[in-house]
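agent: user wants the structure for Daunorubicin resistance protein DrrA family ABC transporter ATP-binding protein from Phytohabitans suffuscus. delegating to structure tool.
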Amino acid sequence: MRVAGYDRAREPDAVRAAIGVTGQFSAVDKLLTGEENLRLMADLHHLARSAGRRRAGQLLEEFELTEAARKPASTYSGGMLRRLDLAMTLVGSPQVIFLDEPTTGLDPRSRRTMWQIIRDLVAGGVTILLTTQYLEEADELADRIALLDRGRVVAEGTAEELKRRIPGGHVRLRFADPQGLDAALQVLRQASRDGDALALRVPGDGSLRSLKTLIGQLDDWAIEVDELSVHTPDLDDVFLALTGNPTNEKVTSP
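agent: tool returned. relaying tokens verbatim.
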């Protein structure tokens, strides 16, 4: 097995040098400033003093922490701490990063900022192995996804490949009046009413071919549709379908 081009058995030191880890719980020393935390990491990587200062300054700027650089990390917000934590991992310029739940506890704005940082790292050639409980995050960031259930991989593939593994995709048609809905029901035998709304659900995978067929049927019968939307299963649906129901444990008192 090779990691970042290095043989794991023959070049273990090079493999370790190529790997960075940012855990779920911050490794930041909150008694130090942001700049001091980065310089400490530079010392641990045996960078020369001047090189360590340059690297710290570069990362503070890249992660938008320059203004807070000389403030104690204890004064940082959750989003700032996560950015500093990841910046500390990058001091040694790793080629492979293990990133464990990078956005846990962050507000939506901080989460999206972290997502962009991760995208920029990947665009720069860094390989990231990311673990997350937020399947929306996996959908946004991952080239390939592995779903785990009780420590076992139950499915693997791209987000789109995984979504196609379960049924449930449909096209929702909304009508302006009951007459239009009733007319569509006569034509689209596979459709079903969508609750009490003037809408139908038509099973389909959302592909261009199936949409053309559906629209052609409606045009042939001059049926007016107020609104059309395509709904496909998301990764939450995939996870629930592939992992099954959790075991209910009954606790009894002696």
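agent: one observation worth passing along. Residues 2-143 form a domain with the Rossmann fold fold (CATH 3.40.50.300).
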